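Problem 12. The chain below contains 754 residues. Write out its predicted structure in C-alpha cell notation.
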Amino acid sequence: MERRLRIEIGGIVQGVGFRPFVYREALAQRLEGWVLNDAGGVCIEVQGQERGLDVFVGQLRTRYPALATINRFELQQVPLEEAGLGFQILKSASDSSGAPGAAVSPDVWVCPACIAELFDPADRRYRYPFINCTDCGPRYSIIKATPYDRAATTMAEFPLCAPCRQEYEDPASRRFHAQPNACPDCGPKLSLIAGGLTVEDHPLREAVRRLRQGQVVAIKGVGGFHLAVDATNDEALGRLRQRKGRDQKAFALMVPDLERARGLARVSEREERLLQSPEGPIVLLEKKEGAALSPLVAPRNRYLGLMLPYAPLHHLLLESFDALVMTSANLGDEPILYRDEEALPRLETLADALLTHNRPIYARVDDSIARVAAGRPLLLRRARGYAPRAIALPFKGRSVLALGGELKNSLCLIQGNQAFLGPHVGDLKAAEMQRSFGEMVSHLEGLFRHSPEAVAHDLHPDFVSSRYAAALHAVQAVAVQHHHAHLASCMAENALEGEVIGIILDGTGLGDDGTLWGGECLVGGYGGYRRMANLKPLALPGGDAAVREPFRMAISLLISVFGQDLPELEATRQIAASELTLLRMMIRKGINSPLSSSMGRLFDAVSSLVGLRHRISYEGQAALELEMALEQDLATVSPYPFAFEPLEERWVIDPDPMVRALVADLQRGESVALMSARFHEGVARMICELCLRLRSTTALSRVVFSGGCFQNVALLERSAALVREAGFELYTHSLVPPNDGGIALGQAAIAAQR
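Solution.
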C-alpha cells in the first residue's frame, strides 16, 4: 500500500541540519518526495510504502539533529503524485502572507568535528577563525529574516568559492546549507587596528603579542566585542578597571579547556556538563585557594565566572594563555558594542588595539551566565546559546509582545503555546539602550513575523518600556504588576496552571497600592493574585541613594526597631554625625524616604550592619558579599527569628526580633560568617513557616520561588530543602532567570490570558 504524506514541522529546524537529515532518512526508507524550508519551519511531502513511511515519521519525531527543537508536528495524507522522481531538497519557499515565522536557532559553540579540522594542518580550513558547519556556529546574531537562508544573513556578502559551494549543495556533507559556511579563500577575514593603523598581516599573532605585553585588546566575537587582558597581569587588570569604570565587580574569564578550569576552581560533574554544553555560558564556580590569577579578577568574591572557548577564534587565542579576562566591551550599564561603525571610535578609549573581522553582527548578543543550584542549572542571564529558544506553555493564548522591566531587560513574544524569549538587553536607564530599544523590538518581531494583539509592560508608568507600550496606540497595552509577573514567569517555565503559593523576593517593584514591594507572598495564577504576606515596610532614605549606599538601610532598620536611641555599633560609628542627623530627620518626616517591603534592601541593611558593605559599586554587591561570607552549613546554626503579625487578611513579616538578635551578636563580637549564616537560616525558615501558614488557609501545596534574591544559592538551596521536607511541591527557575531578566515571560503569559 502506497501513501503520500505532507508533514509540517515548526520549531528550531532551520540552520541545524534538518533538511539533510530528512533527505538521508527518506533515502534509507526508499521514499520519494521533497523537503524545503518555509517561513514556518520545514515542509515535507513524501510517498512510498506504508511501512517505510511509518519508520520515516518515527525517525523525524525522535532522531532529529541535536541542535533542533520541535514544537509543532502536523501530518496529513495527500493524493499520490507521479513516481520515479526520487527525493529532493527544494529551494526555500518565501512567504509574504504574514504567517508566523520559523523559530530561530541560538548561536552555539564550535563543534568537536570543526575543532579537529581547525587544528589539522592537512585541512583546507587549518587555523581558519570562522570555521563552522550545520552543527555549530553563529545563528541568531547573523540572521536578518526567515526563512533562514544565506541571502537573509550577514554572510550574503561573501560569495562561496567552488569547494565551499560543493559542500553547501551536497546533502551528504556536514556543511549542507550551513549558511555561515566559508573558508580562507571566500569568507570573512581578521584584521587588527591600533593607533589608527590596520594590520592585516598575522593580526592574530599581533593581538597575542600585545596581550602578553599587558595591553587591553578589544576582540570582536559572535555577538559583540569583548575587552580582553591577561588574567594574571595586575597592571593590565588595573588599567581595564580604570578605563571601563568597573571598580570591583568580577570579570568573566575564558580558559582553554576543562583541565585549566579545574586548576582555578572546584568543578562538579554537573558544572562540567554546563561548561562543555553547546550553549557555552559563563559558569560561576567556587574559586580554589592559590589560583594563579590576579586578585583584581574577582575581589571579595569566592566565585569565578569561567567559560570555555565557544568560537574558533577563541580556541586560537587561548593556545597562548591559561586564562584571559573576556568582559563585554561597554561603559557602565551601556549595551555591549557590536557594530563596527559604532564600536571602533568608542573603543579607542577602552582598548589599546582591536582584533576585528569583516563579518557583520546583525543582532547584539551578550554571554549567558549560569550556575548550578539545587542540583540543576540556574540561568542568571539568558543570552547567547539560549535565546531566542522557545519555552513551551501549558496553554494557547493570544499573540503578545512583552517588554520586560527597567533593569536586566529582555523581551518575550507569545505565539500559540510558545513563548520566545529574546536575549538579555540590559538596563534601560542607559541612554544608549533607550535609543536602540525599539530597534530590538522590531528585529525580534520581524524574525518571528509577529503581530501582537496586546503589549504587556510593567505597572510602573515611568519605565522606558511602559512609555514605549503607551505609544503603540493601535495595540492594547496591558500593565502587569512586577511580582505577579515573577510568579507567572516561574509558573510558565514549569508549565503550571491553576493557583500556587508564590514566594517572590527581590529589590523593588511598584505594587498595585502605589507603594514599593519586594518581600512578597502571593497566591494566584495567570489570571490574578492576592497579596497574602509581605515584609514589614522600611523607609528608603534618599530613594535610589539607599540602594547605592546600604548604610542608609542599616540606619533605617535600626530606627524601625530602636527608635531614635540607636545602639552603639561599629557600623553607626562610621557615619558622620551630621549625616546621621539628616537620615534621622528624613525618616522621621518622610522626606524622600518611600516605604518598601523589599527583601533585597533587608539583605543590604544586614550586610552594612555586619561591616561588609556600606556603599556599592554595582547592583547587588552588598547582598552578594553577605552570601560570600558564609562558611558553614546553614542547618547547623541557630536562626535569627522573624515575627508574623496579622494585618487585615494577610501576614506582615516583622524583622524586629531578627534585628535585636543580630545587634546582640554584634555587641558580643561574633564572626561575620556566623551572623551571615544565622540571617540566611532565619530567612529560609521564615519562608517555610509562611508556606505552612498559607497551606492551612488555602489548601495549596504547590510553591514557586522567584525574584532576584533567589540568585543566592545558599538561600535557594536551604529554603528549597525546608519547603520540600514540609511536603510541598516546589518549582524554581532554571532556564529563565529568577531576576528581572525573566519577568517578560510572566508579563506575556498574564497578558495572553487576560
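Discussion. The domain at 2-89 is CATH 3.30.70.100 (Alpha-Beta Plaits). Students who got a different answer should revisit the alignment rule from Section 12.3.
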